Description:
This protein is of the alpha+beta class. The protein has helices spanning 12-17, 20-29, 42-54, 60-67, 81-91, 94-112, 136-142, and strands at residues 123-131, 157-165, 171-178. The protein folds into two domains: 12-96; 113-178, no CATH class. The protein has seven helices and three strands. Strands 1-2-3 form a three-stranded antiparallel sheet. Helix 2 (20-29) crosses helix 6. The radius of gyration is 20 Å and the shape is flat. It starts with 11 loop residues before the first helix and ends in a 7-residue tail after the last strand.
Amino acid sequence: MISKSSPHPNFTTLSEHIDPQWISAVLASTGKASVRKRKLPAEQVVWLVIALALYRHQSIAQVVADLDLVLPDEVNPYIANSALTQARQKLGGEPLEQLFGMCASCWDDRHQQGHSWRGLACYAIDGSTLRTPDTQNNRAHFGCQEYSSGVLSSYPQLRLLTLTSLSTHLLRAAVFGEYNKNEMR
Length: 185
């Protein structure tokens, strides 16, 4: 269900800035391209993950329905919610990481023109911390905050470090790391 305050998802503008060939290229380079005909091919799963980040207040099934991401199938027009989750897990993070790099590079290069200082592009490094889902793997990999009393926080946290263009505020790069590592390291 979509509230009146939040419009239906629409990728018209976003799809003008993310070239479908970039998606095909990253899927091919990571070995995640769909070889056989599927109701939800890998290209559509990439759009699904992007949509889930933008419309996180909606369920995965609602986003798929609103964006009409499933290819038509007259025999079985529906797709199980578990299939959506499995498709997202099968895709993994590597294609999205590469797509982010391609988009960041292209968009930043395009918008940097005329915004240099003495011929140099100007960037800032900024760090932050984010909470992650409370799983054993996340606790082992990222760690968590330890209070002076010795008590550990109730959820794992990670460090985020971004390279941001000062003129456009576009992210050029992002790195995630362990909570107890200082962002300068």
